[in-house]
Amino acid sequence: MDALKQELKESLVEQLNLEDITPAEIGDDDMLFGDGLGLDSIDALELIVMLDKTYGIKLTDPKQGRAIFESINTMSAYIAEHRTK
């Protein structure tokens, strides 16, 4: 699970072009949206595409995405349970 969390942090920084932050600075429980990393709705769309391409997970319900993308911990738990790749 730790390897998946590290992979997610690196993917976030790379995919979302987070120039002012390194993967090591992202805590497992840090909020990704709002007061946390400050991600926005465009970032959420990119995360949905990343889940599909990288892990074979298709999200169709925006409310579901809100819960999944809460933190690195919530993302990694969901991916570990639902990945097809």
Task: Briefly say what this structure is.
The chain has one domain: Non-ribosomal Peptide Synthetase Peptidyl Carrier Protein, Chain A, CATH 1.10.1200.10.
Key traits:
mainly alpha; Non-ribosomal Peptide Synthetase Peptidyl Carrier Protein, Chain A; 0% strand; ACP-like_sf; PP-bd_ACP; Acyl carrier protein
End-to-end gap: 15 Å
What CATH architecture would you give? Orthogonal Bundle
CATH H level, superfamily name: ACP-like
Radius of gyration: 12 Å
Number of helices: 4
Helix share, percent? 55-70%
Quote the CATH topology.
Answer: Non-ribosomal Peptide Synthetase Peptidyl Carrier Protein, Chain A
Q: Main sheet, how many strands, which sense, barrel? A: none
Q: Element order, helices and strands?
A: HHHH
Specify the CATH class: Mainly Alpha
Which whole number gives the mean pLDDT?
92
Task: Indicate the overall shape.
Answer: globular
Q: How much of the sequence is in beta strands? A: under 5%
How many beta-strand runs?
0
